[in-house]
Write a structure and sequence with these properties.
The structure is a single chain. With 249 residues, the protein is of the alpha+beta class. It has 6 helices and 8 strands, in the order H-H-E-E-H-E-E-H-E-E-E-E-H-H. The strands form 3 sheets. Strands 4-7-6-5 form a 4-stranded antiparallel β-sheet, covered by helices on one side. It has a two-stranded antiparallel sheet with strand order 1-2. The chain has a two-stranded antiparallel ribbon with strand order 3-8. Helix 1 runs antiparallel to helix 5 and helix 1 packs antiparallel against helix 6. The model is unreliable at 1-7 (pLDDT under 50).
């Protein structure tokens, strides 16, 4: 007497496990990783809007997601971050050094057309006040002392029509100033003369403290309870999809 066993169900199960390893799991993992990255992006954009000084929408819009690609599960990863290098400096901290010369230029609120008391600056620097377009002429003659040097440079700015002058004071303050006043033939202080700093050149190095935005956003996305629910849902969907495609069940 011979015995026969119908192994159809077992074969289906073996095939389902094969599908699970080769197809369903990688797709489910990709969907889950990408979901975490998009959640982190949303968290980061919210944090930047609330905790950072936003002079426009450029910084918020620079947060992007790099989706995962299908492959070995252990090698798969999604990523999020900013396309702007300065956001890396915000995350890790750093030091700002001069691009040219020996002093770092720091735009003031007046450079953006805002009042002196406005802190911090919340607008972009006006084009006419950017360092690359500021035009200055050297004084026609050397001065005997700091006070005279300042007066000469103020008069030079008004005479040239640039209304801007590089000034350095004995207390260490140094920068580009916007000059206002009435140009006269007298050699003393400019009548009605006022000075508003638009570019601070007092420091050769500026330390930028850490202002984390990536780490807290990533942590918040990982803690989201919906992540595992999404994984289970994606895995179940992929298994059912593959089985139906192959066996019509």
């Amino acid at each position: 007497m011979t015995f026969e066993i119908d192994t159809t169900d077992i074969q289906h199960l073996e095939n389902a496990l094969h599908i699970l390893n080769d197809r369903a799991v990688p797709y489910a993992v990709k969907k889950t990783l990408d979901g975490i990255a998009w959640k982190a992006r949303k968290e980061a954009q919210g944090l930047i809007k609330n905790d950072f000084v936003n002079r426009n929408q450029w910084t918020v819009g620079s947060i992007r997601v790099k989706p995962s690609t299908i492959g070995r599960v252990d090698d798969m990863q999604s990523a999020f971050g900013s396309t702007q290098g300065y956001m890396r400096t915000q995350e890790k901290g750093g030091v700002k050094r001069p691009l040219s010369g020996n002093k770092v230029s720091i735009p003031t609120t007046r450079a953006a057309g805002q009042g002196r008391a406005k802190r911090p600056r919340t607008r972009n620097v006006l084009t006419r006040n950017k360092m690359k377009v500021v035009w200055l002429r050297k004084p026609a003659y050397r001065s005997k002392n700091n006070k005279q040097e300042i007066i000469v440079r103020m008069r030079q700015a008004l005479k040239d029509g640039s209304d801007k002058a590089y000034l350095k004071f004995n207390n260490g303050t140094e920068g580009i100033f916007e000059v206002d006043g009435v140009l006269t033939t007298s050699r003393g202080w400019v009548p009605g003369g006022t000075l508003d700093m638009i570019q601070d050149l007092s420091r050769s190095v500026v330390k930028i403290p850490k202002h984390r935005w990536m780490r807290p956003s990533a942590d918040a996305a990982r803690r989201d309870a919906s992540v595992m629910r999404e994984y289970r849902r994606a895995l179940s969907f992929q298994i059912q999809r593959e089985i139906k495609a192959r066996y019509g069940v």
